[in-house]
Amino acid sequence: MATICVHALVTGRVQGVWFRQSTLEEAERAGLVGWVRNLPDGSVEVMLQGEEKAVHHVEAWLGQGPELATVADVQSETVDLSEDLAAFSII
């Protein structure tokens, strides 16, 4: 299957609820590289790269998030592959 890269913006109650750590764990379980970070407006930004099926699995998980999160919306788009991603990290 193809390798893809997806950029996502998650809004709702997604900061202070272990969203970044849970995303890291989901991405690592799926064998993805990329990053997750909090934004000043209270949203969470995510970059996922790897096998297409695995990326779409974690992308779908973002719509639910961890137990304490309340996700209002996930906006995502496929973007060009990033050459400098070697692991998944919280930034």
UniProtKB/TrEMBL annotation:
GO terms for molecular function: acylphosphatase activity. This is Acylphosphatase. It comes from the Bacteria. Residues 5-91 form the Acylphosphatase-like domain. It catalyses: an acyl phosphate + H2O = a carboxylate + phosphate + H(+). Pfam families: Acylphosphatase (PF00708). The active site is at R20, N38. Keywords: Hydrolase. SUPFAM superfamilies: Acylphosphatase/BLUF domain-like. Its EC number is 3.6.1.7. PANTHER family: ACYLPHOSPHATASE (PTHR47268). Belongs to the acylphosphatase family.
